[in-house]
Amino acid sequence: MTRQPPASLLAPALLGLALTVLVAPSAQALEGDASAPIEVEANQLDLDDRAGTAVYTGDVDIRQGSMQLTGDRVEIRRNASGELSHAIATGERAYIEQLPAPDEPLVRGWGRTIVYYVAERRVELIDRAELHQGGDTFDGGYLEYFLDRRVVQARSEAEGVEERQRIRMTLQPEQ
Asked: What phi, psi does 120 have (nearest 5°)?
């Protein structure tokens, strides 16, 4: 018998991820995302209510509205108060995407590790990190995005980065 994780563990995690907009001018996700059903596919789930963790492994695909998070492994953690602490997706190319608004381009991010810190509203793309919105791109060893301040920080070297990866940025001219 497969035990489903409690909604209290999954819903806040994916709601937080659904509201994540990596480099969009607006910090608003599509209005329907938060109320959309959460769909999770994986080969295995290990849930530990006492530890506050849910670990999905094997071609993990999590979707809610326009948001998608994929990886070989996705771990969702709660703090001692039961609130979502962070979500970690790992794999050769973990992936996150979101359509921030109907008239804005899709935001897509890749890395060997993707970490979303809920309280700080911060996303890290680690090792072979890449971030795309429309024609604008950022890539390097490590990309960090602060959602509320709309700040991108990029590094060629950081913890978890296998080798130095120079920072590259391409910005398309305004139309």
From this structure: -85, -10
> Which residue reads 């050769």 in tokens?
92
State which H helix or E strand residue 170 sits in. Answer: strand 168-170
Q: How many residues are there in the chain?
A: 175
Determine the straight-line distance between the first and last CA of the chain, rounded to whole angstroms: 55
The rounded distance, in Å, linking the Cα atoms of 153 and 145 is 6
**pTM greater than 0.85:** no
Q: Which residues contact 134 (CB under 8 A, 6 or more apart)?
A: 105, 172
At which residue do the structure tokens 């999954």 appear? 10
Q: 33 vs 87, which has greater pLDDT?
A: 87
Percent of the chain scored above 90 by pLDDT? 29
Residue 130 pLDDT exceeds 90? yes
Q: Which two tokens stand for residue 59?
A: 């071609």
pLDDT level of residue 127 (50, 70, 90 thresholds): very high
Beta strands in 11-163, from DSSP E residues, in sequence order? 38-41, 44-48, 53-64, 67-78, 84-98, 107-117, 122-133, 136-146, 151-155
Residue in the structure block whose two tokens are 């590259």:
168
Query: What per-residue confidence (pLDDT) applies to 28?
Result: 45
Three-class SS state of 13: helix
